[in-house]
Amino acid sequence: MDRIEASSIAVRNQLLRALPADDLARLAPALKPVELIHKTTLFAADEPITSVWFIEAGAVSLLAQMQDGALVEVGVTGREGMVGLPLVLGADASPNLALVQMPGSALLLPAAALREALDASPALQALLLRYALALHGQVSWTAACNGRHVIEQRLARWLLIAHDQADGDDLPLTHEVLSQMLGVRRAGVSVAAGMLQRAGLIRLGRGHLTVTDRPGLEAAACECYRSGLREFERLLGPSLRRS
Fold first, then answer.
1. Radius of gyration for the alpha carbons in the chain, expressed in angstroms and rounded
2. What is the pLDDT, as a whole number, of residue 5?
3. Over pLDDT 70: what percentage of the chain?
4. Contact 104, 47 (CB under 8 A)
5. Measured CA distances, 23 to 9, 53, 61, 134, 164 (Å)
6. Among 5, 6, 64, 94, whose CB has the most other CB atoms within 10 angstroms?
7. Is the pTM of this model over 0.90?
8. β-pair type (41-43, 208-211)
9. b/e burial code for range 150-184 (CB count within 10 A of at least 16 → b)
10. What does 183-242 look like in DSSP terms, one character per residue?
């Protein structure tokens, strides 16, 4: 299937599901299902963004690139949101790059179709502006978390966010990816992950880890996870948080 039929819309993306039925039906013919392949760059920093992606499954990281080439995550998007937000705000590029960290799927919308839809749908415009505020809150709490909390708490927070986006408890994450996401040395991530495993909260495997105690992981995380979640719920309604 190359396009979404307006007569049979079945989407998992939380933003699209929040749209009035008529607005979603008008948007549907322009939406194209695409696969999100691990480590694929959706757009690079300071280069034109030609499409937006409404995430259906998986997770995409927004990364800042340092002068030495190191990448540090500043935000993450799953099926609660979309990638390519600068287009909504009137820009055509981003200072960050967007990289698929957990494989999945998305509904792709070309930039021209997005602009037409924003002009035609006040509901879509209002919804995406609220999402922009929610993502800004996530980025703010990420900065606060990185500056104030120990690696174990930061790792627990990031794993909770990743777990919210996954369909099961098994997460395709390596220590290398986690060190990049947290902006710390791989050895530090190994120590922190080992502590969470000894506490019975996760189980480590080759190229993946499994969340074994979600409530315990929430207790191990700092307040930044819950604060960011509350902001999403305030602006966008019920969250994707696991029960």
1. 18
2. 47
3. 94
4. no
5. 12, 17, 28, 22, 27
6. 94
7. no
8. unpaired
9. ebbbbbbbbbbbbbbbbeeeebbbebebbbbbbbb
10. TS-HHHHHHHHHHHHHTTSEEEETTEEEE--HHHHHHHS-HHHHHHHHHHHHHHSS----
Lookup result for tokens 């939380």: 14
Backbone angles phi, psi at 42, to 5 degrees: -80, -40
> In this structure, are residues 53 and 107 in contact, taking their beta carbons and an 8 Å threshold?
yes
Question: Which residues in the chain come in under a pLDDT of 70?
Answer: 1-9, 239-243
Scan for tokens 């998305």, then name that residue. Answer: 106
Phi, psi of 221 (to 5 degrees): -80, 160
How many Å from the N-terminal Cα to the C-terminal Cα in the chain? Answer: 33
Alpha-carbon gap, residue 180 to 178, rounded angstroms: 5
Q: Dig out the tokens for 85 from the structure.
A: 């937000």
How is residue 15 written in tokens?
Answer: 């933003």
Length of the chain: 243
Distance of alpha carbon 176 from alpha carbon 234, whole angstroms: 34
Per-residue tokens: 90 = 């009137």
Sequence-ordered list of residues with C-beta below 8 angstroms from that of 27, at least 6 positions apart, any chain = 16, 19, 109, 113, 117, 121, 124
Tokens 């190994």 sit on residue: 190
